[in-house]
Design a protein that fits this description.
It is a single chain. Helix content is 39%, strand content 13%. It has 307 residues and is α/β, with parallel strands linked by helices. The protein has an 8-stranded mixed beta sheet with strand order 2-1-3-4-6-5-7-8, sandwiched between helices. The longest helix is centred in the last third of the chain and has 22 residues. It is globular, with a radius of gyration of 20 Å.
Length: 307
């Protein structure tokens, strides 16, 4: 073998080296549903942030997932707080660490979309407006899943929930939490998806270095979205590839799209889930138009024409 060929093989091996940290901070024995995307969101977040992390979580799926006291499935401290109080809770933890002179600890609010976009938005807004040294991560399964699949502000247009059943499916668009956080002029905000772990881990590391930071992570839910548990990663990828859930970051005001979608039809993504089975062709066409419109707006902000 020539020297050039050997060098080429070494470069290929280097490119294939794993980019996901091997240490696990989510242990066996959690109480999540089979195929739960929220578990992967926590798993990848902690891989990026490491053991010097404190989690505060409100009433949500994760208040059940980690188990009953005195047992839990995380290797980091966890504090439970009221549904509306995550932003205040992590602000207090950060202040307490400062008073005690404890440095280099990641204080993280980890909440579902209901506890972020609706019930918890006031304390979250106050925390980032004050510039608290915190990371807030919303694992977005697009409804109040822990309490019975009720509509949230993050539920997308057209979705069935137990509070938007039958012909009463949701008629309003999904609340754009990243743009709300960007309006606070925080250093870093980004979307992520559990189907793209390398992208999520890179963004979590950036969040660690640019606080206050906000991460909005799409976490598919087989129970609420009505699909087989084994399909979660495929459906998460479809959300990104259809541009329904774009992956991008806003770093000190600069937008950057971080995934290159294949541009599959939005209809394919919608038809993969039982929560959209009631939609007509006209409704799906409307959703496609809205996805295209929002993508064009994002491209304009990022100055990028990814195809």
């Amino acid at each position: 073998m020539t020297q050039g060929a050997k060098k080429g093989q070494q470069e290929v091996r280097k490119e294939k080296r794993p980019t996901i940290p091997t240490e696990e901070y989510v242990t066996k024995g959690h109480m999540a549903c089979q195929g739960c995307g929220a578990v992967l969101a926590m798993r990848y977040l902690l891989k990026a942030l490491g053991p010097r992390t404190i989690i505060s979580t409100p009433a949500c799926c994760w208040s059940v997932i980690h188990g009953q006291f005195p047992y839990w499935c995380l290797k980091v401290p966890v504090m439970h707080t009221a549904f509306e109080g995550t932003g205040a809770s992590i602000s207090g933890i950060a202040a307490a660490l400062e008073m005690r002179g404890v440095e280099n600890v990641n204080v993280v609010g980890f909440a579902g979309d209901g506890g972020t976009a609706d019930i918890g938005i006031q304390s979250l807004s106050a925390a980032v407006e004050r510039g608290e040294p915190i990371i807030y991560c919303c694992y977005d399964n697009e409804a109040y899943m822990n309490t019975g699949i009720q509509r949230s502000g993050s539920t997308p247009y057209g979705a069935w929930t137990t509070t938007t059943p039958g012909e009463s499916w949701k008629k309003r668009p999904k609340k754009n939490m990243v743009e709300i956080m960007v309006a606070h002029e925080i250093p870093y905000a980004a979307t992520a998806c559990v189907a793209y772990p390398e992208d999520m881990i890179k963004k979590a590391i950036k969040a660690k270095e640019n606080k206050p930071a906000y991460l909005h992570v799409l976490a598919p839910c087989p129970t609420g979205w009505r699909y087989p548990p084994a399909e979660g990663i495929r459906i998460g990828r479809m959300a990104v590839q259809s541009r329904t859930f774009p992956l991008y970051e806003v770093d000190h005001g600069a937008y950057r799209i971080t995934a290159r979608p294949r541009t599959i039809p939005v209809k394919n993504y919608l038809e993969s889930q039982g929560r959209f089975k009631h939609l007509t062709s006209d409704a799906m066409d409307y959703i496609q138009q809205q996805v295209d419109r929002r993508w064009a707006q994002l491209e304009g902000k990022a100055g990028s024409k990814l195809k």
